[in-house]
Amino acid sequence: MNAAVWGFERYLRGLARRHFTGVHWLVRAGVPRSDTDLPTLFVGNHTNWWDGFLALLATRSLGLDYQVLMEAQHLARYPFFRRVGALPLRRSPARVAYADLKAAAPRLAPGAGLWVFPQGRRRPPQEPIADCERGAAHLIRQHRGPVRLCPVAFRYSFTSEQLPEAFLLVDTPWIAEPDSGTGRRAMMADIEARLRTTVAALDEMMRVESFAEFRPLIAGRLSVNKRLDRARHAVGLLRGPFEIRNG
What we know:
The chain is of the alpha/beta class. The chain is built from 7 helices and 9 strands.
């Protein structure tokens, strides 16, 4: 890991601690950790400024090298992001988009986690996952070898705490074979359907506030009442276990 990645990861962890009560994630069985066997292509929904930054923290926490396709015009404005794994993607015309995807394909290597947000740009949270761009399928076909695909859902919410909370569902991966005979359109339809299922699963957990399976990716700032409760526990004014979350 180079110094830029190390420093930026530390900066993001501090930023998340200040702005969230917590960043919580649920990692399904089969998601690679420090994998040196197959490359991993993460596909995520995109509704929030935080998505790419939390993707970096999740990737590093899985022991993988972070790479992400980023809109070329934004990367030109903030070229520092190249040093922490961002790769340029021009979306039109088609020939230059394909050229950028072809240039990015070698980054699909064992030990790396390459992120694609196939909705193309930030969308409203309640907008259905539909009409996704086919860059992920093109990357798989360019790679010419097995690729592990992993859908990830991001959601942000004020629940019972003073500050918002972020939730990531890193869902069960599957292996895509570029020589399976499946065309790009059909391959992308499958990816889109799986991402839609992952987002729907996280939305249902959010709807009923079913958070027991989640684990902290970043521990953030306690609500004011919880900071007071912790102080009272410390001096014996409150008894019983300290509950970190509000009811």
